[in-house]
Amino acid sequence: MPGLRAAGADRPAPEVRTVGPDGEVFLLLPADSPAVRAATHAQDDELAAVLEITDVAPVSVPDRIRGRAWISGWLTCVPGVAEPGRMLLRLEPGEVSVDDLWGADHVEPEAFATASADPLACHETELLQHLAAGHGDQVRGLGTLLGGGHDDGDYEQVTPLALDRFGLRVRFTRRHGGGSPADRSFDARFEFPQPVRDIAGLRAEMHRLFESAAS
Description:
Elements: H1 4-7, E1 16-19, E2 25-30, H2 34-42, E3 47-56, E4 65-78, E5 86-100, E6 103-107, H3 109-114, H4 124-134, H5 136-141, E7 155-164, E8 167-174, E9 185-191, H6 199-214
Antiparallel strand pairs: 1-2, 2-5, 3-4, 4-5, 5-6, 7-8, 8-9
C-alpha cells in the first residue's frame, strides 16, 4: 500500500473486517492510521492495496500457520459511517489468492463475492479447543483409521487442527525420527459421509467417527 512504509507501519491491522454483499471488503481502522491517511490523500485516485490474512490454528501444534490469503484491489474511504476516531475503508477486490492446507489457488472476484461462509466457521475455535482439551484420547484414537499398523505410542502429539462441514483434519507428530516436531508431523483428513449443516449434525458425525476408530 503506497505510503505505509514511510509512515512506519508496514502492516496495519484492522479492528474489524467484514465482507459486503458484492464481495467488497470493509475494514475499520483508527482515523489516524497510515492506511486511512493514504486513502484520504488519494481522494478520487485509485489507491492500490493488498490485504494479507493469516489463518493461525487456535490450538498448540507444530507450525500453527494453516494458511494465508491475499486480496488485492483498490482502497477508498467510506466517510460518515464509523464512530468518531475511526474510519471505514472499502477494498474492492481485483485479485484473490489463497495458499492453505488444501493447496494454492487463485479465486476470481466473482466467485469470492458469491462464496458463503462455512456453517461451522464461527464455532471452529471453541470446537477444536474442546476436542483437544476434553477428547484428547478419542482424537488420538483416530490414528487407528490410518492403517499401516499405527499405534498410539508412535505419536508424541495428536491434535485436531481444522474443522469444517466436510470433515476434521488432525495433525500427528511422530515420536521418533529426525528433525524438528514440524518435520515429524503430518496431517490426516477424516471426511464426513455428507456435509454437516449445524452443531447437531457435527455432534452426530463426530460420535460416528470416534465409534469407528474404537471398533
